[in-house]
Every structure is written in structure tokens, then in C-alpha cells.
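ok so I'm stuck.
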Amino acid sequence: MPRNFFTGPGYFDVDATLSKSFGLPSMRIIGENAKLEFRANFYNLFNKLNLTSVQTDIFNSHFGEAQNALGSRTIEMQARFSF
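replied:
not stuck anymore, here's the structure
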């Protein structure tokens, strides 16, 4: 086999962000340009399994097996009030 023959599994990841901002009416307490923003961050949106640390030692009984995997889908929610 030539050098670097074994390339291992590929990596695929899609991250996305959705946000919506609402303007609030003018009030003496919060001011004229008050806003309320909701935001959601999605990491690994399609929940694709990404394997890491593939065993490349041909004398090991676990040759070719992935030893670890990266994190699954994560969703982060935020709310922001600005005035």
C-alpha cells in the first residue's frame, strides 16, 4: 500500500442560526428604540455522525474501527432585550 492510503471517514457539519427581533412601543421607562430579540443556534443541524480517532495500526485487532465520535446536534436558545 502506498503512503497515506487510508483516508478515514469524511467530516460533514452544518451550523445555522435563526433570529427574530421585535420592536417595542415607545415608553418613558424603556426609551424609544427598545427591542426584544429571540435567537436559536443549531450546531450539527442534521445530526450527522462524525467519527474520529480511527485505528490505523494494522497489527491491532481493532484496525479500521473508530475509537471516538464528535458531539451530536446541539441547540442553543437566547433572548436579548436592548434599550
